[in-house]
């Protein structure tokens, strides 16, 4: 069946074959994928609402929903809660963080030609929780700064970061000190730049709170990291947890084979 778009938009003039063994939703996904590949649908392009797209294609909304879900699974589309469905950035647009290099979020984003931002969601000076005290080698009577920030690139949310810092080591700190600023740069200015760290990564799904903050659907794939960093003198300076958008951020690891020549 041929399509005459009610949207009067060339990208949606997709030819569908009702007699094909290929499910219609897959045909729709293939048609949209081809338009993304050829540049007819560019990064950031907003797709019509499901109802409008179904009407334009002459198919059901269930068919359209299946096609969009398939493309989202392949990383070609991204869904923003309350905003709609968009063509995802090409891989080169996604900041890649080398796993073997200890660098700040701000440095990573700037290396991609983007402007980093940090919105402070929570800031407090308090006693450490058991996990924080253990990671930072503190006693239950010490004090820490607990900071939660929404990290952005060119104003778009990329990650939710939670950092715990030993108050006695860091010195006086205010919320304004970490707003739209690199935490590593601040620590460096105080002679406390992290020198080495241990980081754990795992895949998680966005719950309602994370989805709302990061602008992704509930259940969207996220990369969760947990890290402890030390100064050159061996002082634990930061215990950090972060949730990165899986569609906007990736980590790169360089691997080497074992030397078996000996």
From TrEMBL:
Pfam families: GntR, UTRA. SUPFAM superfamilies: Chorismate lyase-like, Winged helix' DNA-binding domain. It comes from the Bacteria. Keywords: DNA-binding, Transcription, Transcription regulation. Residues 22-90 form the HTH gntR-type domain. This is HTH-type transcriptional repressor NagR.
